[in-house]
What does this fold into?
Amino acid sequence: MATGAQPRAGIWTTRWTTLTLVLIPVGIAINFVGKFVAQALKLPLWLDSIGTVLAAFIAGPWVGALTGALNNIIYGLTVDPVSFWYFITSVGIGLSAGIMARLGFIRTTARAVVAGLVVALVATVVSFPINIYLWGGQTGNVWGDALFTALTLRGVPLWLASFLDELAVDLPDKVLTVLIAFGLFKALPRRLLSQFQLGEGELRHTA
Amino acid sequence: MIRIEQLIYRYPHQSRDALSSVCWQVEEGEFVLLAGASGSGKTTLLRCLNGLVPHFHGGSFGGRVLVAGLDTRVHSTARLSRLVGFVAQDPEAQGLLDCVADEIAFGLENLGYDERAIRVRVEEALDLLGIASLRNRRLATLSGGERQRVALAAALAARPHILALDEPTSQLDPWAAESILDVLRRLVDDLGLTIVLAEQRLERVLGLCSRVTLLSPDGRLERDGPPEEIASELPWPPPLIRLGLALGSRPVPLTVKQARELVHNRGLVLSPGEPVRSAGRPADPPAVELERVWVRAGERWALEDVSLAVYPGLVTILMGRNGAGKTTLLRQIVGLQKPDRGRVVVLGREIIHLSRAELARAVGYVPQHPSSMLFSESVREELVVTLRARGHQEDELEWTLQRLGLAEHAARHPYDLSGGERQRAALAAVLVGRPSILLLDEPTRGLDPERKADLGRLLRRVAADGCAVVVATHDVEFAAGWADRIALLAEGRVIAEGAPAEVLAGTLAYSTQINRVFGGPYLTVEDVLAAVGHAPVPPASAEVG
Amino acid sequence: MRPVGLYVERRSPLHALDPITKLVYAVCLALVPFVAGDLRVTFVALAGNLALLAVGRVVREGLLALAGVGFFLATLFLVQGMVYPGNATPLVSIGPLVLYREGLAYAVWLTARFINLTLSAFVLLFTTRPADLVEELVRAGLPPRAGYVLLSVLQIIPSMAARVSVIQDAQRSRGMETEGPIWVRMRALLPVLGPLVISSLVAMQERALALEVRGFGAPGPRTFYRPPWRHRIAWPVRLAAVSALLGALIWRLAG
It folds into this structure.
């Protein structure tokens, strides 16, 4: 019985509830498991931010950013200390995915591809300076690094080669990540999603 | 202790009230059983007691709920949590921390008790539940029954006045469920706690509680009173009550002991009958045959020298404790795991010669949680996924939906369905591929008696079409009612196999309540009534006047 | 089921040390090379870390974990050897590829810095139960909500990973392929992740509820069941770690 006008969610509004709070660990766990499944299926991609993107789709950019940040912190504290450095990248992914979602870019598959391109670009722009600082510009992905080497040997400047190296890796990875998150998001039961939306489910006393 | 006045509540986005005009009062020290079909508002009523309704769920709320004098509209769930201990259905989802002692201490830490008080109360709760030995164990390593005890300990640690329990045994095997109920019995006796317990499986609780409140399917308070009085009016009475009703006994027996006395007083002695003749092997060639199968699981054998045949047209039920090898056996038949020794033959061909696709066409498998397989936006889409994976035509689709009573839900999201409907959706997604063999793992978990009977009938119909149906379950009453053949597993071995009466009668762990009263080959009320030549069997769904 | 993380259960002086001290140590030592900008200092830090891993009796585990990135480090030498902007002195040539001295030196520097960072972290990670670290962080002032998020991730992951295999089984028995060409495997992703995500989100609601009924977020200060972790040498170690970092800074400024 959702009566009355439902205020449309602004880009930055977030409904902070216990539910939002537990969405974050689930998002992080999905990141982890997504990566695990991708490896099990021998896919040549990372797919390690599906949960961050999904959390951003569900609850907005701030929750996305927080999921991304905590994801890398917990990763750094348990498995891979280097992931601390890429904490900013994850925040960028969460923020951009949330903003694109709130701007209406997850209504159709075509729009979701655009959202994916934006997220990929943001991830690349944030990551490549870190790559240059830590690894002299490499990403650790064989194909990306082969491109990097070829470009640099042809005299392309280091920053550009590094940018393209990261982009070559991130473009397919992030576009697919966003598409998968989009597919998952679309299949979510409305009843579940409604709990995160604004202006609904507010307590009302009828007597 | 609890006073509810004119409560009306509706969840957000719902078109009907979950609870309407409920007036209810519970005194200190009462043990109230909250009964009613699934969807009748039992859970909602429990969640009113600690303010989850309305604070957590939202929606529209009218009337008021007073818990120990506190109005739940004014006080937060955190405040009410000092008064009301709460245990939910699923032991997995309730565990919040890694280690048992931390889990029990968590609530106390949140409420700001000092370190010394927390220590005392944690020890006290551990002792109360008899789980002091689990103190330093990780939650992930505990069995379902142990986890549920930890959840109870965590709820009791804050020394609440009221304990609200939402089907705490529904996800457990019968032994674990029994142990939880034993604990409750002790808590009532020793602590004088006020307990409100929502349950579907009434047979073991009726003899335990001091009062029964029955909710009608539309969320109204239907009946309220002592168990002896209400039991005879329950919509889906457990076997002993049905026996009492059939024999015209008032009050109806609530426990096996009372039923024995009743039978004794009536002089209703049934001849042990001839020993059940061993049901011969069916004439049809088996659909699945396991020949001396051994399967390794780490250090030990999950299956040891198992030989078993499954026949088309019959419902075969695998019984046994958790870890007895039921699921491993099913996985052998779907080809998800290869035997280390022995052969598995499906439809006359050895399984290792069958391709994944051929096997998938022949064998349908519904895993323990139907939610493990549903991922589409609608029930219909879910069926299409299976058909596409198998290269079938879509003309089976509408027929299957009709048959499973899902036609009107075809466009709905599987997760917006009720538990029973969701399970039928999973079943439909498997059956639409017309498998010759259908396997189900623990399908009766969390189903109310009516849904269970629906499932039993459905499986019988599927078998009647020539499908070989195999069900792994703990549920003795279900097996007694619907199995053609039963295989009993223990420690990876088949220890008995045959007709239900042959396998279940006289065993201690697996006998039905009726069998405990009468002994002999009598497993169900129908068996008994047939034997005494008693005429009208009251329908299982006796109308409530 | 195996818990997430690198923690190795063992008895050692390092295991007995409190988590915050180890965290301070790991952060300081990991940053030393970045601050000092000097290869010799890096090697000193590296040796110190190795020694501490030996004290914690986890050297073997540490080196094994490092081996995982061996391939990447090898490509670092190859690529930097070829393309480092400062390359001038050819050293070796493999076919058409020429590796330069400066590039290789740069790769040595990057690698040493990376290995030092990793080993510093290992001193903490291999000897500290993640739950203990989080609890101490909350005690030190991390908001309990953040602490809860970190802890529950560690719990959810194993149970989700276990569910993945159940779901994969269910979908495979429905005839879905999980092997074959890449597009077939790609298509297998949604049927596995779909049920996983939906059921996790549903379970998440249950968890939110369980938190509420256990008084989570109650006003007033939160208290602790476990006594604070005290160690005699906690402060000396913390001071030593911070002075190492300061020393590195002075080295940089002076050198």
The beta strands of chain C are 90-94, 97-100. The first strand of chain C starts at residue 90 and ends at 94. Chain C has two domains: 13-129+231-254, 135-213.
